[in-house]
Amino acid sequence: MTKEESNQKNIDSEIHNSASESKQNNSTKKSHGEILKEQICEGQETYNKKPSSIILSSVTAGLEIGFSYLLICNLFYFLSDKFSETTIFKAIALVYPIGFILVILGQSILFTEQTSLLTLPVLNRKRSLNSLFKIWSLVIFGNLIGGFLIALTLIWIGPNLKLFDIKTIETIALHVIKPDSFTILISAILAGWLMGLLSWLLSSATETISRIFIIFLITGTMSFTGLHHSIIGNVEVFSGMISSENIEFLDYIRFQSLALFGNAIGGAFFVALLKYRAFIYNVDIN
């Protein structure tokens, strides 16, 4: 057995032992190793799914996240003549998490939530880097397609039900793409970091109410601070692009590429340097 194989065996054994000890203690607080093992297993489950299943689940997530957009537009339109735009964009944090709650508790596959989960099996040498990029591509494709479909639906039904108007769609989209490219990239990295943290925290929680609170806390923070999320941002900017002459295709491509890249970096960075590496540094691999 090579030194590299021996090191990996020690890491796997330590993760397993840490998880087993936590269960034997019947503690309500899960150990680092137990959470890490659950995250790796959950990531592996996604890898084991058929591509058609992954795409369908990802499309579903893209559709479901649209309910956040529906509420965002409706709230903005409702408050537009009562408060300033700055105040309204802060208040949006109250409804922004709804779509994420539907997606995550419904176990649909959302790219930003899965970024860290899918990275862990690669870090633990259970999957290859090529397989990671392949599955990321499938999930992103499904999420974007679902976003396109719900955007087309909402920009039609919203004005017809007088929930919001085209001006609202344009204002929200312009607000999302307003920062310069570097700002959007860093903002997306921070959002990806938070989503990686969300996945980790959800493994620590067992009760549904606790999970809902955690999702609300993390995604509400993203909304309140204006951090860029590639999947709900896809719905926001795509809707604006097809509804307004002030938002061009290049604006959409600029935002979407930066947001996806930033979210991916944030999620992978969070897992690689602050959770997985922190754990294995405590493993004796000499």
Structural account:
With 286 residues, the chain is mainly alpha-helical. It has one domain: Glycerol uptake facilitator protein (Up-down Bundle), CATH 1.20.1080.10. It has 13 helices and no strands. This is Formate/nitrite transporter FocA, FNT family. The chain crosses the membrane at residues 54-79, 91-111, 132-157, 182-201, 213-232, 252-274. InterPro entries: Aquaporin-like (IPR023271), For/NO2_transpt (IPR000292).
Task: For the structure shown, list the relevant keywords.
79% helix; Glycerol uptake facilitator protein; 286 residues; globular; mainly alpha
What is the helix fraction of residues, given as a range? over 70%
Total domain count: 1
Separation of the first and last Cα atoms: 14 Å
| Level-2 CATH architecture | Up-down Bundle
Under CATH, the topology can be stated as Glycerol uptake facilitator protein
What's the rounded overall pLDDT mean?
Answer: 89
Rg from Cα: 20 Å
Question: How much beta, percentage-wise?
Answer: under 5%
Give the H and E element order: HHHHHHHHHHHHH
Highest CATH level, the class: Mainly Alpha
By CATH, the superfamily comes out as: Glycerol uptake facilitator protein
Keywords: Membrane, Transmembrane, Transmembrane helix
GO molecular function, one term: formate transmembrane transporter activity
Biased composition (Polar residues): 16-28
Biased composition (Basic and acidic residues): 1-15
